Amino acid sequence: MSIYTGPVFDMARQQFQIIADHIGMPEDERDRLLYPKRAITVSCPIHRDDGSTVVFQGYRVQHHLSLGPTKGGTRFSKSVAIGEVAARASGMSWKCALAGLPYGGAKGGVTVDPAALSLRELEALSRRYMQEMIPFVGPHTDVMAPDMGTNEQVMAWFMDTYSMYQGKTVTEIVTGKPVASGGTEGRREATGRGVVHLAMRAAETIGLTPRTAIVQGFGNVGSVSATELAARGIKVVGVSDHTACYADPNGLPIEALNRHVAANRVLAGFSAEALADPATLLTRPCDILIPAALERVIDATVAAKLQCRVLAEGANGPTTPDADLVLAERAKEIRVVPDILCNAGGVVVSYFEWVQDLQQFFWEENEVNNRLTRVLDRAYEQVTARARKDNVGQRTAAMAIGVEKVYAAKRTRGLFP
Ligand code: NAD
């Protein structure tokens, strides 16, 4: 299994072993749950706008098929590598199981800087990646969704490419599509909406009325989270993306920031006065801290310096196992809402989108949001109860529930699929 290397997979392996020890999983069963069912690597050649040819490397990892098709996002980023994709595919498995969705986990991506592509080049790459994946995906095999560097438009290209090869429209092949192309109301906002809903539940659990928040990342998850916080009257006192970091103890103007990003794609250039040091953003004082960008941004050193009361993990894998040890010691000061619970809103509404596409019967946004809240509340309560019962942290409790469900399905089915 040596193809799965790198710090992100090492971290996933370490977290899985902690859970396997906690639930007493026999040693000989562990590899079956940890390692992916299959991993696909493809070359995606495209013509650049200047007429030259360039080849990008693409991946798709399907973690397990024991509960239904696999489900997971597609990332376009310079850092995409097979170990990282496999790690995030296994995380999706535990997340889907925790939320009670009939899916295994998957993830995919292309090693590319999407900002360096023109719109035409991005379309060519998106279509070629999906074309290469056609033999391996399907509405009942593996269903893709957006992740960092991809968006509704990329999902529309994926769906269209798959559909052209089938000779008919197959909207249920991807989720996170534009509503105009078979997407669901509420999907674009679902992850950030869920993050803030659960952050508020965590605050309520510890008897905190939150007044301030900081959000790292201002893409889909970060910007929607910031907007939801502001709508609840919470001052967003710090935000950042890969181009700029702003802070203001009186609260930043989120609507104006959204307008700026809609026009310029990035935060850079918004304000000279509010510029702040991105290296200290996460450790500034605030009630709710939402990392919504990269993996492994909270290590043991950062964890020791955090000044938040609720750490709501919008990103996947923002906290390292070493940081978790520090946070366990600080459990009375900081309440963690772990990623597989906190950002599950995205895959929950993706599931709703898939169900609606399969039935060709569409729901109103209110119904989507109400059902989302019900699923997240149920998962939150299960995690809280399990943490109390086992006397463990929220992450261990959340992962234990997810891993146990997958393990139970594998045990009762046998060695296949
Ligand atoms: P996105 O591409 O829309 O936005 C990513 C943001 O992170 C951008 O604003 C980018 O500038 C910022 N960023 C990149 N490097 C940064 C840095 N060094 N410092 C600060 N900001 C930086 O991606 P997204 O969909 O919002 O995903 C963000 C995170 O949430 C990822 O970890 C993703 O896996 C996770 N997630 C997303 C969804 C979803 O539905 N989109 C669901 C679950 C989890």
Structure characterization notes:
The chain has helices at 7-22, 27-34, 82-99, 119-133, 152-166, 187-205, 220-231, 254-264, 300-305, 321-329, 339-342, 345-359, 365-390, 394-413, and strands at residues 38-47, 53-62, 70-77, 104-111, 142-146, 212-216, 235-240, 245-247, 288-291, 310-312, 335-337. A hairpin with a 4-residue loop joins strand 7 and strand 8 (245-247). By secondary structure, the chain is an alpha/beta fold. The mean pLDDT is 97. Helix content is 47%, strand content 16%. Helix 1 (7-22) crosses helix 14 (394-413) and helix 6 (187-205) runs parallel beside helix 13 (365-390). The chain has a 6-stranded mixed β-sheet with strand order 8-7-6-9-10-11. It has a 5-stranded mixed β-sheet with strand order 1-2-4-3-5. It is built from 14 helices and 11 strands. Nicotinamide-adenine-dinucleotide is lined by residues 146-149, 191, 216-222, 240-242, 278, 292-294, 314-316, 343, 346.
